[in-house]
Structures are given as structure tokens and as C-alpha cells.
Specification:
The chain is mainly α. It is built from twelve helices and four strands; from the N terminus they run H-E-E-H-H-H-H-H-H-H-H-H-H-E-E-H. The strands form two sheets. The chain has a two-stranded antiparallel sheet with strand order 1-2. Strands 3-4 form a two-stranded antiparallel ribbon.
Length: 314
């Protein structure tokens, strides 16, 4: 088989992975209610066929049940998330959920492994080098919480992407007019990907490009735009995400009362010395800078969708 044929076979698997859930024709007698049936589950009480005496396999299955892995496989779902992320999310949004591990459970299990591996490797975000005056203690507690709660931090950061995704990809060829709840689950899957990519970056710094790469691949597969259509929308989304994140940061400064913040030169933030009125003005400016590209991108997507619909009708 040539490399080209292997690639086409892989692309076919990406779009439609095999799911052979064929039910056997053997007749079973349910040990729970005594009903005779064919298939995997009793239609009266729901007990699974083949449940009988306790075996080592049953012990292992009971352990997996604690993690919600009775009918779904976490490793297989993670593998699909790495190899076919957009198609996997599309399957889940489209209703093929039995073969997919629950995204919320998956996120927090990956976060647990992230914390364990990061601690073993000695990678820890601390407040060393930050000022310790009383004025910024509240803000430092926020940074400390971020360093010790990677799952909630990933959720918080990707939540900001819900609005840009919803508006800029609203009229995509696939999943047209997707809903806000669906956008939330899209970002839940992306949270897991971000944690995996962050863990890979801890192991090897040169893999910093994995997060933007996976965002592009996932959105390209899920929404179905062409390469340039996916790229410019993602760039605008990243632009909006940055300004919304700055807005959240300024809001934290206003709430915590840290109107003066001076960090060391090796930190990512610079001197900040502005009163609350100035903070509110800066916050309004960032929100306006985020709203403009969202509005323009939404109008472009809507106009092109109407044009394509008219061309199809003609």
C-alpha cells in the first residue's frame, strides 16, 4: 500500500471511524428478572447480558465504573481527540455519545494527571518575585489559585473563546447556527487538548506551537471552512480573546483594589499605576476593541452564507 493510499485510508477513518456495536443473536435469560431476550441488555430491567458470577474481569470493570468508564474508553477517546479532534467533537455534538468518554470527567482526570506529572517534574508556578505588599495580596491569591487549579484555569481561559466561536463561526458549512450550549462543549474538549499540549510543552519547550495548531485543526474539521476561512476567523478570535482577557484582568484589578501593581522585570506584566476611573475607561476601550471585529466578522459570515444559499437555489 502506497503512502498516498495510507493517507486516504487514514482520512476516511478520521471522518467515519468504525463503530461495530453489533448485537448477538444468542438468547439470554436475565438473572435479575428471568426475562428471555436477545441483545446486550434486558429490555425489562436493563441488566447487561452475561452478568453472572463475580470474576476478575468483573472486579476490573467495577473499578472502571468508578471513573465512568463502563461503556466508554478514556484512552480511546483521548487518542481520537489527538488524531481527529474536530470530527470527534462533531460526532459528540451530533448525538454519537455512547462511544465517547464524558468530556467533563475527561477534563478533570487529565487535570489530575497534569498536576501529578508537573509536580514530579518540578514545574510549579509560584508567586516568587511578585510584590508582597498588602495592596496586591488579593491579586496574588488569584495567581496562586491559577497555578494549583489547571482544570478550572483552562475552563476559565477557554470560556472566553465561546463568544468569538459562536459569532465568527455562526454560518459555517458544517454545524451551521450551532448553539451556545454546543459552543460550551466545544471548549470543554479544547480544555482537555490545551492541558495535554501544556503537559507536552513542560516535557519539551519546542512544542509551544501545539495549542494554536490544534485549534486550527479542530475548527477546520468541525466547522468545515477552507484553510484561509478557518485561519482568519481564528486570528480574529485570538485577537478578541486577548482583549477580553485583558478586560477580565482589569476587572480583577478594580475588584481587588490593586490600583498600583509593579512586578519584576522578568515577569510578563509591567508597571500599572492608574486610578479606578482610568481603569473603567481602559476596560471600556478593551471591550470596544473586542466588539468591533466580532461585529464585522459576524456580518461577513452572514453575508457569505446568504450569497452561497442564493447560488445554490439558482
Amino acid at each position: 500500500m502506497t503512502p498516498k493510499e495510507l493517507y486516504h485510508r487514514f482520512r476516511t477513518w478520521q471522518k467515519t471511524p468504525s463503530r461495530n456495536w453489533e448485537e448477538g443473536v444468542t438468547t439470554h435469560r436475565c438473572p435479575n428478572c428471568g426475562h428471555e431476550f436477545t441483545g446486550r441488555y434486558c429490555p425489562l430491567c436493563g441488566q447487561q447480558a452475561g452478568d453472572g458470577r463475580i470474576t476478575w474481569r468483573w472486579v476490573w470493570k467495577s473499578i472502571l465504573d468508578v471513573w465512568g468508564m463502563d461503556s466508554q474508553s478514556l484512552p480511546y477517546t483521548l487518542l481520537q481527540l489527538l488524531i481527529r479532534p474536530g470530527y470527534l467533537i462533531s460526532d459528540y455534538i451530533g448525538g454519537h455519545r455512547q462511544a465517547c468518554y464524558k468530556p467533563v470527567n475527561m477534563l478533570f482526570i487529565v487535570a489530575i494527571f497534569y498536576v501529578i506529572i508537573a509536580q514530579l517534574l518540578g514545574h510549579n508556578v509560584s508567586s516568587a518575585g511578585f510584590p508582597t505588599d498588602n495592596e496586591t495580596n488579593s491579586l496574588l491569591s488569584v495567581f496562586s489559585w491559577i497555578s494549583t487549579h489547571p482544570a478550572w484555569t483552562a475552563i476559565s481561559l477557554t470560556t472566553i473563546m465561546i463568544l468569538p466561536t459562536y459569532l465568527l463561526f455562526r454560518f459555517a458549512p458544517r454545524h451551521t447556527r450551532h448553539t451556545l450550549p454546543e459552543s460550551i462543549f466545544i471548549q470543554l474538549f479544547m480544555c482537555t487538548l490545551i492541558l495535554i499540549c501544556s503537559l507536552a510543552t513542560i516535557l519539551l519547550d519546542e512544542l509551544f506551537w501545539l495549542v494554536p495548531f490544534y485549534y486550527y485543526i479542530t475548527y477546520r474539521q468541525f466547522f468545515g471552512y477552507r484553510p484561509w476561512g478557518t485561519l482568519w476567523r481564528l486570528l480574529v478570535s485570538a485577537f478578541v480573546w486577548l482583549f477580553l482577557l485583558c478586560s477580565v484582568f482589569i476587572t480583577l484589578l478594580i475588584i481587588t483594589g490593586a490600583d498600583q501593581l509593579a512586578l519584576n522585570e522578568d515577569r510578563m506584566f509591567v508597571n500599572y499605576d492608574i486610578d479606578n476611573n482610568g481603569s473603567l475607561l481602559l476596560l471600556a476601550s478593551f471591550l470596544l476593541l473586542a466588539a468591533l471585529p466580532l461585529t464585522i466578522g459576524y456580518r461577513i459570515g452572514k453575508k457569505r452564507a446568504h450569497t452561497q444559499s442564493a447560488d445554490i437555489q439558482q
